Amino acid sequence: MSNIKDVAKMANVSISTVSHVINGTRFVSEETKEKVRQAMESLNYVPNVAAFSLRTKKSKNIGVVIPITKDETSNVFFMQVMQGIETVLSKNGYFLVLSNSKEDIKCEEQEIKNLLMRQVDGVIIASSRGDHSFIHQLLEEKEYVFIDRVPEGISDVDCIISDGESGSYEAVRYLAELGHRKIGVLCDIIGEYPNSDRRYQGYLKALKDSGIPFRREYVKECQSSIESGYDATRRIMEETDITALYVVSNVNAMGALQYFREAHISIPEDISMVIYDDYSWAKIYRPPLTVIRQEAFEMGRKSAELLLKRMNEPDLLEERGLIQMKTTLIKRESCRPI
To answer: Is 123 helix (H, G, I), strand (E, B) or coil?
Structure first.
């Protein structure tokens, strides 16, 4: 069986260099890293992670907690986030340990405890809804970064989210530029979900800046489900005369599209539509849907880079706080001038 000395000999480097490549404990040039990796592959050499953990008190594992429920459609979004995280971790010799909170704050707390029992070196958390005041004490000896959602009940933490307010503003301004003045919105229950609230605020600001009076009947609040999106769309179409609809949740958008199909309402002939988030089905739907795209992969990549920076640079003075990532309006065929 090959050992680290064999790898060093084949790569023509020192044993310590091989160790630094494996453990990410010192800068090594990409050329040297590649020589070491090729030697390890040729010799089928597998590093002894357990021995490394005992020696350094580091597991080289990073815990990631996401909030996916049984019928959740955002699993595609979080898969893209995971790819961004894993790209950075693997490049730096770390491994990803994934856990699911099932959108339950108590479950999230327990899953973080489970990760700590497995000696993870740091944690990335897409928070569930609920009070997170327990986090500071639970993770007082670990670095952690929040993604996608701002946690409730705590401040002075690193948090990376999409700029939902600006994205929504751009969507509604686009509809206004097409001449629409009767613009409806489907959103989550106002005050219950910070991400949705930011998107709703973008809607309000865009109306104001476009000189369009706010009309409360054009706002339909709904739970995050296909059924709720369907019912909210039915109500807004029966009760109002909107010419355009902005939907802040992709799952509610699926309900809206189901209603339009069953009611024989054509897009964009009868109504223009923009949705938040860009999944593959939005592109292949007929007509292809105009969307606000989040950079899920980049969010994951940036969160992992920030976490490793916090872990490996203990004297880092960079202020903790909210980082908002830019969204992009993708114009397709679901909107037309009034």
So the answer is: strand
